[in-house]
Specification:
The protein is of the alpha+beta class. Helices cover about 50% and strands about 15% of the residues. A hairpin with a 4-residue loop joins strand 6 and strand 7.
């Protein structure tokens, strides 16, 4: 890995080092930047200081910014530095640079917006600032997204699944935006039918909370998705999350008063995934302690197993009655115990 020019190298030393690291001869470098071989030799020997325009071309070819030298004005140096950065990025990813140029032009256009569209310009700039904040987090391996509707982002992670999915939902079912999204639900069904191990735990206050979501729960159980209902009194410290293939974890932060998700954290960091998996496993253990209701077991009962779907027949009433009875006898019953 090459050193930075900020290490105090003179321009000639930097040019020589970068040229050798890139396996270029003095002649090859000269041809690429449009000067003579002897000038490159003089620059490397320190007997010539390359002019600003040549430093920019050297930066473009060698992929690093050249040090500040000479007697150029501050304005010239600022413009030159921007051109060097641009040329370096252009050499790394022309497509990304083209997008940046388009965004830059849009920003300039937004800056001249007037009248009724001016507030829209403020909104666009605020969203762009959020995107910039998110981009700076990515190299760390995790990122937190505030306020946005992140259904498509959850789907991006979900679609990476090839082996296993573990999910905990702690908001009431009406507030789980991801579950209300049809695309998200369809993807869960597809993965379950494709043989991916899918386990979903729902932390709820009362069995009646399931009613608005009962059709989707029925469908996912029929698709092979293990669906577990846990009384909130046994899981007061549970946290909403999605774990995919033990490689990614997505964690939701909810404002229960407003019934909405306020932030989502996405991470590919191993310790984040391991911690989330440990939390899931602890909550999942409530099944064996009689403090969780496994919907799959209820639907396997003879009275319900004969129905392929919830329909106009008595299947819906039977399903609700079976859930209510199991809840009253198990996780919804009064007693001690809980999730820690």
């Amino acid at each position: 890995m090459s050193r930075s020019a900020a290490d105090g190298e003179q321009v000639g030393e930097l040019v020589r080092r970068l040229r050798k690291e890139r396996d270029l001869t003095q002649l090859q470098l000269a041809e690429q930047v449009g000067c003579s071989r002897s000038l490159i030799q003089q620059i490397e020997n320190g007997t010539r200081i390359p002019p600003l325009a040549l430093r920019e071309r050297l930066s473009s070819v060698l992929g690093e910014r050249m040090p500040v030298v000479g007697t150029e004005t501050a304005a010239d140096l600022v413009s030159s530095d921007l051109r060097m950065q641009f040329n370096i990025l252009l050499g790394k990813d022309p497509e990304a640079v083209a997008r940046v140029l388009a965004i830059a032009q849009s920003l300039i256009d937004v800056g001249t917006a007037r009248g009724e569209v001016k507030p829209l310009g403020f909104i666009a700039k605020r969203q762009l600032e959020r995107a910039e904040e998110l981009l700076t987090q990515i190299p760390s391996g995790s990122a937190t997204v505030w306020e946005w509707n992140t259904i498509n982002d959850w789907l991006t992670v979900l679609r990476k699944a090839s082996r296993a999915i573990c999910a905990i939902h702690t908001a009431d079912l009406g507030a789980i935006g991801g579950d209300l999204g049809d695309e998200y639900h369809v993807e869960i069904l597809r993965l379950g039918r494709a043989g991916v191990s899918v386990r979903r735990l729902y932390v709820i206050d009362d069995i009646d909370d399931v009613v608005p979501y009962e059709d989707k729960i029925w469908q996912q159980v029929r698709a092979g998705v293990e669906t577990v209902l846990v009384d909130r009194m046994h899981a007061s410290n549970a946290q909403s999350m999605l774990i995919v293939d033990e490689s990614y974890v997505t964690t939701g932060e909810y404002d229960y008063a407003r019934r909405e998700r306020v932030a989502t954290r996405f991470s590919a960091l191993k310790h984040d995934v391991q911690f989330a998996q440990s939390r899931f496993d602890k909550l999942y253990e409530l099944r064996s302690a009689g403090m969780a209701l496994v919907v799959n077991e209820i639907m396997a009962q003879p009275t319900l197993s004969r129905f392929p779907r919830l329909g106009p027949e008595d299947s819906r009433a039977l399903f609700r009655a079976a859930l209510a009875q199991a809840w009253a006898e198990g996780p919804g019953a009064s007693g001690e115990g809980g999730y820690r």
